[in-house]
Amino acid sequence: MTKKKNQWIEWLKAILIAFGLVFFIRMFLFSPIVVDGPSMLPTLHDRDQMIVNKFIYKIKEPERFDIVVFHAPNQKDFIKRVIGLPGEHVKVKDEVLYINGKPVEEPFLEDLKRAKKEYQSITNDFTLEELPGGYEEIPEDHILVLGDNRGNSTDSRMIGVIPLDEVVGKASVIYWPPERMQIVRE
């Protein structure tokens, strides 16, 4: 009887350790997210399942064109692309992104640009000053984010710049569905 009881205790310990590890990894290191909606098309599709790296921004700052998950004001988490960094001025004019007055290529929009019709625009013109907050430059510890599908995205144009402490992490791996499994690059 004692031997059987010891086996149960050993199994219980192993299960508790496994649950503890899963909890730790999910809380502090990696977490799954499901893309909800078309705002990141064509890069991410509705219902894509991704892994969010939650610790990367503890050791470095977000970079331009990273795909990030963040807590949106009074809503669920959003997934968007970093466009502007602290201290920068952002504007879009005639489908061209300008950072501090210099044009910046957005290679992830090339498929959309090829597919659009002559009368369609990918990104309506805007300047940072016209966005909520009316900033002349992105404040320290904030980023400006946009969806890749600019015509159908709730992003910094509506909700303003995002505080870095609201960023959950970087999403760069699609693991489901299997035919879309990939590391997402700019």
UniProtKB/TrEMBL annotation:
The active site is at residues 39, 80. One of its GO terms (biological process) is signal peptide processing. Pfam families: Peptidase_S26 (PF10502). InterPro entries: LexA/Signal_pep-like_sf, Pept_S26A_signal_pept_1, Pept_S26A_signal_pept_1_CS, Pept_S26A_signal_pept_1_Lys-AS, Peptidase_S26. One of its GO terms (molecular function) is signal peptidase activity. Residues 8-176 form the Peptidase S26 domain. It catalyses: Cleavage of hydrophobic, N-terminal signal or leader sequences from secreted and periplasmic proteins. Keywords: Hydrolase, Membrane, Protease, Transmembrane, Transmembrane helix. The keyword Nucleotide-binding does not apply. CDD domains: S26_SPase_I. The chain crosses the membrane at residues 12-35. Its EC number is 3.4.21.89. It is found in: Cell membrane; Membrane. It comes from the Bacteria. One of its GO terms (cellular component) is plasma membrane. It is a single-pass type II membrane protein. Belongs to the peptidase S26 family. This is Signal peptidase I.
